[in-house]
Amino acid sequence: MRTANLSGRLVLLVDGLAVDVERAGDGRFTADPQAVYQRWGEFRSWAASARLPEGVAFDPSDLGSPAPAPRQLLAVGLNYRDHAAESGFTLPEGLPPVFTKFATSITGPVTEVTLPPGGSTDWEVELVAVIGQQCRNVAQVGVWGRIAGVTIGQDLSERITQMSGPAPQFSLGKSLPGFTPMGPCLVTPEEFADIDDLELRATIDGEEVQKGRTRDLIFSVPALVSRLSALLPLLPGDVLFTGTPAGVGWGREPQRFLHPGEELVSTIDGIGELRQRFIA
Ligand code: ZN
Fold it and tell me: Which terminal Cβ of the chain has fewer Cβ within 10 Å, N or C?
């Protein structure tokens, strides 16, 4: 099953067309794309058996984030060996570094992003999991059954702010306006042949800068959810950014960052793509 946020309304995607959930269900579920996660199991059952009207075509630039207002957004750093090495950090053991991207930075999948001064804005394509059922002290086994679905995220990062001061400012440097695009849709885990092995890529103006597979995550999605849920509850609709593979600009020799006029495309097979154009 695929869902999306079309102009602020929850839709089901059927053969690439959008079916408005509130109208199709005669008001049984609200149009609020974030609220659906509170009743995810009930919604899934309904969607599986509902007789849906014909969908409508839409413009991807009208899509919002499939989780536009999570109560918590947890993001994980250094979760691929090759990226930890290029960043100059040692590998994490018990838990990788965890930070947040503040909610005002969340956008849909097709956007224009204003680059902050300093010329140090970097890219990080990531698999993003959205929680479908509260997780507290859960074992790894069965975690995918508690995930509503997955989507693509870009963890845009302004490296000067991120790395400045006596302790790094990960959350602030990664939360400037437009720095958390997500989408284009939410795809439920059973749609994939192997949910633990998805290919993710990023290109700038067509040039490939990142390519990795989620089987190379140091902490898999089930491992992250299990370990995080031992410390705090993960709530329905919460968003988990799972880390980025090698190829970010910070780790290059010489370093490379995003420039006005460039277009960043982030892709995960079976989900779709994000498209960000940068302006000064
Ligand atoms: Zn990241």
Answer: C
